[in-house]
Queue: 4 jobs
Job 1
Amino acid sequence: MIFQQIDFHNVEQMIPWENGYHMARLPETVFQRVNQGIRERSGFYSTGIELRFRLNSDSVDLWLRAMPELEAQVAYLFYGSIQGGWQMSSYVIGTEPTRLHLQKPDNLETLKRITEKERLPFSPEVIRLVLPYGNCIFLKAEGDMEPPRPGDTPADCYLAYGSSITHGSLALAAPYTYPFRIAQKMKCDYLNLGFAGTAQMEPAMAEYIVSRKDWSFASVEMGVNMLGESFSEKGFEQNIDRFTAILAKDPRPVFATSIFGFPGDQKRADQFRAIVKKYAESRLLFVDGLELLNQDAYISQDGVHPTLEGMEKIADRWFNMMNNHFSNKDRQWSKR
């Protein structure tokens, strides 16, 4: 959405809150139909949110602050597809109002040549401030800017839905989440609909995903957030059945996976993997989560979330499967 001359990518609502704005990743009509955890918490995480704009002056100031989190909240700067240099690569967002001073690169013509030579998908004239996966509050923008122009961003877009693993927990930096890395490899845009701890595959979420016309292909990671004792196996199966049935009605490619490998108790995880396979294998483009990642050394200390190496394994393996699929289809992603 466009707000204050900025494209708030992956944002559906700007909700006034304490001299600033919560950036909500779902519209109000969907919030009303999903679980309480999304409504009160994960739907407001800055996961996959980017502030995108062109500079009409040499610099601008953006003001944000972060809600208290256990991890440092760091935003990363890209000039189109190209990561910012050491002077302007990252910005720590504090819990007090924080000024982020963003400048035009002094070598823009070089970045343009590289972008054209390498056929990179984003124009280097577009500033992309990639927000962290905590909860950031937008306060204000100061300076002369405008939203990206037609052709500045890729026409095709990859949508990823899933748990905190999709959301980016333990990726340490938002550009190292597997959705971001797959999009880089596919040279397309992305939308991150990862909901930490709250991805419960509700029909309302599936209906929302297929209602969006701005994605070309999607992936859904299903299961780990319902392993807890509060969810029955029957309830999980009902959700998977309805969720995948709705997605299957859309003609666009949807890649599906189950629970990735982790070193904990496998009995219930295997039962849930089997349920996902039962419904996703015949309806979507299914690959078992263990084929994407099944190495204990690539799981962090918490026993669930992949490490940086684990994230890269998921990105590499899923990208190869996606790329092979599209190579066989002459890379015709869009069916809009």
Job 2
Amino acid sequence: MMEKEKVIIGMSGGVDSSVAAALLLEQGYDVIGVTMKIWPESLGQDKLKEGGCCSLSAVDDARRVANKLGIPYYVMNFQEIFEKTVIDYFVAEYQQGRTPNPCIACNKFVKFDALLKKAVTMGVQYIATGHYAKIEYDQGLDRYLLKKSVTAAKDQTYALYNLTQEQLKHILMPLGDYHKEEIRQMAQDLGLGVASKPDSQEICFVEDNDYARFITERTGKESPKGYFVDSEGNTLGKHKGIIHYTIGQRKGLGIAFGKPMYVIGIDAKSNRVILGEAGQEYSSGLVAAQAHFIPFDRPAGDLEVTAKIRYTAKEAKAVLRPYEDTKVMAAFDIPQRAITPGQAVVFYDGDVVIGGGIIERGIDNISE
């Protein structure tokens, strides 16, 4: 009798990872449940969003599910790497006038790097998550591909574009062929107490989605006040600190202009927030750094793709163009609103993830 292949399933205490664990059992794997302890104790449990993937209640829910499924369950400590690669990064990006996506950093450095390395040391062949995405091996390309989930509303490939071939080889994502309603029904049929548990929203470590307050408490410093200026450099008034603003923002500027004004740029060096009138928040293209690709190492030339400039954005037709070093350019068929430095842009060919990068800036002259 062949020994079952072992898989560590990251369990957040939610319905998705719980059903993913059940599906892996059904598929014949030797399943081990793990919750990653990532919340730094120095910040205190009282600052942790209740019900978030790092909370005490999440651990309790995950343990109950593991017991119900009859699988071993452990809590593993990844606090140090999470603090360094996610929280410190999040704070530093805002201080530089950029708007980061901490979930992408967490996936890249913690879930699919640190956890996978831990699995290898334990003699475990795979790690698995409850992400809505699909991993398939393409024989013609001799590469693993990341593909969209069957449910567009829940597809999570945007946050997974950094996965490498070596990682994809050892990752299982059993939910890619299911709709959310089916997952909840499965959980109910299995008698799992998390069947109707709401999905976690926003960033797990930021209370009430108040980024500025979190950064101020974390650093012990107020973001210095500065000036709003227009695109010509004319002073328009005072701002309360650059961490309070993001590209495309119109509300909450704290000053009335008699007409709608939008944040179109943040200059951390001069501590200025640049405002523009309606229409100026659109750009016809972008430059992205730290580009990573999945079906190939790097595009040989221009590619017609669709692109998402943030998790909630709709895909837009674009031409992807190799640029200097590890950068790429994207020229959109239709100008896009609020292209935001620090956010990821992810490129697709149909349901296949081509890759992505971190937006450096929006541009209007794609031939630059």
Job 3
Amino acid sequence: MTSDDLRKALSKVKYPGFSRDIISFGLVKSSEVTDGTAHVQLQIQTKDPKIPQQIFQDCHALLDPIFGESGKVIIEIDVQDPPSAGAASGESTAIPGVKKIIAVGSGKGGVGKSTVSSNLAIALSQQGYKVGLLDCDLYGPSVPLMFGVENHQPHADDQDRIIPIEAHGLKLMSMGFLLSDNSPVIVRGPLANRYTQQFLQQVAWGELDILIIDLPPGTGDIQLTLVQTVSLDGAVIVTTPQEVAMIDARKAVSMFAKVNVPILGLVENMAYFECDHGERYHLFGQGGAERECERIKVPLLGRIPLVPIIGKRCDGGEPTALLSPSESKASAAFHDTAHALINHVS
């Protein structure tokens, strides 16, 4: 086996909890084969001792059978402390002018993550905060439609930075602003990471109290690129009550834990349907989010009802949180969730 063959073999070793391998993450600092002996040097930034241990075992499991009894495999791992994660360290964020960066994620699609992100951003804005919303869902950007600005296109300033679109008092950035309605987004991992980094570092956000980042569903490359690019103050996980959604929500919680991002809490969307007589029906089950929050020791930030007005107003570019909480129970749920979130992150 040559050194190039060794590097190709190491590309099959995944970073625990992610779809990407240790080569594409840049963890392999050197790899060479000398006199039948494989020398591999890795550098990993983590505080979780299980991660380097798992990678060490996976490397040996892959290479030991290849080199056999006559060869030898030497794996050296340099474990370093990761960059601090915003509020956990008290350090400033990596985006100038932005005080707090909060990611909103989910383990699976279809739980209303973008709806929650958009309404949370509006509720925080109406509470007096300067808020930006970054739609990092490259493959299914929905923020432009939800804010009624799907036909807008951003411009650049004199420093060649993207000027975000403004709507309903928020600053917005999304892949949807760069595409026509029917254009599919066909980008592979490295290019998706580049777009994500550009949206984070080359957008003229100005002075913001809070930047909400709407992540794509799942636990893939874009999520890891995000936590490696900026210091997050925490993450909010959106789920629905049924167990099948909870399974994926746990994966999202585990992913953020592996990269030392604190979980600020869970939001249970589509928690119940309330009829005209005031009786509540739990169409997708009851108590799942509460039990999960007790298990992982994080707060349940809010429970959002399943009501037609939420989807209708999002489709019309006027999210529900724009309504007064006194005239809409759905709006009140989003505002209560925003209150709980800002109290917890503070």
Job 4
Amino acid sequence: MEKESLSKERRNFFSKMIIAGTGSLGLLSLSGCNSSNNDTLQMTEDQKATLLYIYQEEKVARDVYIYLGNLYPAENTFAYIQLSEQRHMDVVEELCIKYNVDISAVDETDIGVFILPELQALYDQLIADGSASLLAALQVGVLIEETDITDLEEASVGMPSDVVNVFENIKEGSLSHLDAFNYSISQLPI
């Protein structure tokens, strides 16, 4: 019986790794975002603000998952997905640099601190909600990924093609993360 339980636990572990990791595979193709590709390097101030928002929103996801992963260390979904969120931040950071979006006030090492007040408030609320229970924490993960998917779709409108491509790849990762959180919820004892 114990051997069966261990085997099932390993399968669940590897399933989560595969689900969380598939979103990262698409990011491997993002290295071309710095290549010259006929896209103008000009962006409107609104587009720059949108790019900064997405960059900070990815940080919210990563930081929430770091916090919840520390709070619920037996639930490895947070640990796997926080690594993917870091990759999302990295590729959006590259775009910010390419398009001269000022991110000098952002300190990625300062977990839970954001330069956009609405994202600071969101982070604080998500931490409070996720601290209630493991189920609540996983539901926070679902909410984050659903929000990211919607925001990425909306942010893509009117953006240069390289930004749209990056956002599409990040969205694919978010869909995989959403699947991972829903799977983890389905595995909780009732």
